Amino acid sequence: FCKTPPPPPRPISKKMNETSVHNRQKSTEKKQVTTPLLIPEEDELKNSSLVSLDIGDAAAEQGHDKAMNLEGFSVSQGSYHTIRMKHVLIVTWVAYAAYIIGRKPFGVVRFNVQKEINLSPMMSSMVDTAFLTTYSFGQIFYASLKNKYSSKTIIALGLLGSATCTLMFSTTSVPLFMVFLWGLNGIFESFGWPSCVSVVTPWLAPHERGRVMGVWGSCQAVGSLLGNWIAASLLMWGWRWSYYGVTACVGASAVGVYLLLSEHPNRSGFVSPQQWIQGFRTGDLSNCSETSVDGEKLLQQQQQQQTVPGSPASQTMTTFQLAALPCTIDIALSYFCQKLIRYSLLSWLPYYLTIELGYSTVMAGYVASSFDFGGIIGSMASGVFSDWHQGGKRRIGACVIYLQLGAGSLLLFSIMGGVMKSSMSATCIISGLVGFFFFGCDTLMTGATLQDLAERLNVPQHAGSISGFVGGIGSIGAILQGPVTAYLATNYGWNSVFYFLILLSMVAIACMARPVMMERRSG
Q1: Cα–Cα distance between 223 and 444 in angstroms, integer?
Q2: DSSP secondary structure letters along 397-423
């Protein structure tokens, strides 16, 4: 039963071992080209070179180390991070700040216009109503425009149209023509947000989406401050000069967008994070001949479904098809309530501080600005919080938390009125808290949350259109806030206004019930 021991294994030389490993790597690379790729988990995506924003090296390995075409100029050896920062995030941030600037001058020069051309208060309010109405409908039906033109074209066209309207407004003294021009400006202004979201979405990975969109969303508050400053600083030469200054800023931004903006990552030689998750790599781009209006390569199953309008991979969806997507109406109704609350405070807070608390007009303006400053911080903080909350997988739940805390901060207005009369610091803290939560919820709800929803519904290419639809429904709330707030304050007092806004917060939370359930089911 004694057996001769087997001979020792043949020693493998270092050279043979390296050759074997090289052959296995080569075989693996061939399999990746000829067989379907596995979809990596999100943790794997975070560790990949794409999401760490160092894709320039990955592109070079795939043979894409040549100069890359960026809509009229080339960037040699451009990295994903550099292109995304300089030609996407910064350009769209400036562009949307310019959109905000383009809608500000009338609010600043209203009194001067009324005095110079004898514009009645009723006609003045019609100018505002015309803008808000056309702005709302422009966003709701934005999808019809997006089906035909690229986001870059729409952004530049909207800025150019807004600049033209502001310039023409400065040349007229006819009230009805002013109403028409400002209504037309509302249509052009409605192009801004959904188009910018469409451009930014494919450049962001899911785990970073909240904080990036939170910081990016600060363009709204910064644009508002700049718009007021530009119009006010030129007012010494007459209200028409305020419009000239705004026209120059908005028009220059349109040119900058046309020259500098890069749209989809595919147009720069990279795969998007969404395509990476689906298993595509840079080498697959050379096998695709079809592209969307934004330059996205239609890969494999996308090309098959492209011919079916309204299918998940289709590049064309109507407004009614967007409304039929699960949970879109729910979020839109919640945003309607949230925007009515925010615009009511934006429009009436200085008046409330003057009439109810006895502040001077100048001091009320300064104190009310704490609402905006709280909003800037809240917008950034909401993105960081949404990325941290449940690992970035519960952004709808994060919106609900912000709405709950916002309702609590609104309650302070009614129960601490006596303290606010005697302490401006307390008033600043309370109004800042309200701005923190409602601005934060606004940025989160119309940005990263809808981008996540579009991915869950397998329509990431329509994130901008969904954002436009939700924003359009919300803008109806902005239209209604004026008469609703005035009626309640006049007939029942300001405490009734705040209780009504708290009730609206509860309705907004209730509308999010179905989206929260869908988010939890999706894991």
Answers
A1: 18
A2: HHHHHHHHHHHHHHHHHHHSHHHHHH-
Here the tokens at position 223 are 């644009």
- Enter the DSSP assignment of 68: E
The alpha carbon of residue 463 and the mean position of all alpha carbons in its chain are separated, in whole angstroms, by 10
Residue 314: the pLDDT is: 55
Q: What is the reported pLDDT for 414?
A: 83
Confidence (pLDDT) at 311: 47
* Pair 298, 306: CB distance under 8 Å: yes
- Cα–Cα–Cα angle for 155, 158, 163, rounded to 5 degrees: 125
- Cβ neighbors of 98 (< 8 A, separation 6 or more) are 159, 223, 249, 250, 253, 254
Left (φ > 0), alpha (ψ -120 to 50) or beta: where does 53 sit? left
Tell me if 164 sits within 8 A of 218, measured CB to CB: no
SS3 state of residue 3? coil
Closest CA to 354 of 344, 362, 345: 362
Residues lower than pLDDT 50 in the chain:
1-22, 24-78, 301-313
Instruction: Please name the residues in contact with 47: beta carbons below 8 A apart, sequence gap of 6 or more.
Output: none
Residue pair 231/104 in contact by the 8 Å Cβ criterion = yes
Tens digits of per-residue pLDDT, 118-171? 888 788 888 988 999 999 999 999 988 888 899 999 999 999 999 999 999 999
